[in-house]
Amino acid sequence: MTSNTINLTGKTALVTGASRGIGRAISEVLMECGADVLGIGTSIKARDGDLTDHAVRCGTAFTPIDADLSDRAQINSLLEGVRRDHVEVDILVNNAGIIRRSPAESHSLEDWDRVLAINLDAVFQLSQAFGKQMIERGDGKIINIASVLSFQGGILVPGYAASKGAIAQLTKALANEWASKGVNVNAVAPGYIATDNTADLQRDADRTASLMARIPVARWGEPREIAWPVAFLASAQASFIHGTVLPVDGGWLAR
After folding, report:
1. DSSP secondary structure code for residue 183 in this structure
2. Where does residue 98 rank: exposed (0-12), middle (13-18), buried (19+ CB within 10 A)?
3. Spatial separation of the C-alpha atoms in residues 108 and 40, rounded to whole Å
4. Using CA atoms, how far apart are residues 162 and 149, in angstroms rounded to an integer?
């Protein structure tokens, strides 16, 4: 099972938040394009069977790695393990992210700290570590998962909106420094995608109706519809694309 249009054979990708939703779809699609995948999740070793089977069907490899990305010590252990195993990461996909919903005036600092730790701090720590290696090789791809809230403020999600706005600017900042060194840094900004993170919205009939009325395509997106643009940005076909934040939103930002 391989893609005839995007060839990532021989590449190794590290995908955070790989156990479900968008991250799982990204892992599957990258394997379909020929890449081996290191999948990061808080308890991914206990649920990686389907992804391992998918890798076998694709003729690639999937390696699950447990890590809580809100904990810098666990990120350091993850990085040490990758170095110890002499794995060269060609493609870094910073996908892991959480949402905490509450009015800004009552949004807890604990929620704020955890959202920023996973959605932003971990992205920089991983990008910095693997970016150094990519610079040394003169080649590499970093794809961050931003959001339509990188462009808008959202409702009841101050920490999430702040983190995703920062991801857009971090993507541009890293691209400014690393494009000339052979490293492509870009982001995909999903719109409203049917995942666990949007489960509350999907269950709210009134909110869903108002969202669908605003989206020109008038439906929720599917995780694989985010995964394929990520695979493109990870490919040689995207060699001249740097610092782009690509909305994949069913037309949300156009209206």
Report:
1. E
2. middle
3. 27
4. 8
CATH no. of 12-195+222-248: 3.40.50.720
CA-based radius of gyration for the chain: 17
pLDDT single digits (tens) 127-138: 999 999 999 999
The model's pLDDT over 57-94, given as tens digits with 9 standing for 90+, comes to 999 999 999 999 999 999 999 999 999 999 999 999 99
**Catalytically active residues, by annotation:** 160
β-strand partners of 91: 13, 141
Q: Strand (E) positions, 55-181?
A: 62-66, 91-94, 140-145
**Which of 31, 1, 124 is CA-nearest to residue 13?**
31
Look up the pTM and report it. 0.96
Q: What is the pLDDT of residues 113-156, one digit of tens each?
A: 999 999 999 999 999 999 999 999 999 999 999 999 999 999 99
d(CA 77, CA 153): 34
Strand arrangement of the beta sheet that strand 91-94 belongs to:
62-66, 36-41, 12-16, 91-94, 140-145, 183-190, 245-248
- pLDDT tens readout for residues 103-113: 999 999 999 99
Which phi and psi angles does 234 have, rounded to 5°?
Answer: -85, -5
Reported in sequence order, the residue ranges of the chain that DSSP labels E, i.e. its strands, are 12-16, 36-41, 62-66, 91-94, 140-145, 183-190, 245-248
The whole-number pLDDT of residue 243 equals 98
With CA atoms as reference, report the closest residue to 130 among 184, 65, 169, 200.
Answer: 184
Domain extents in the chain:
12-195+222-248
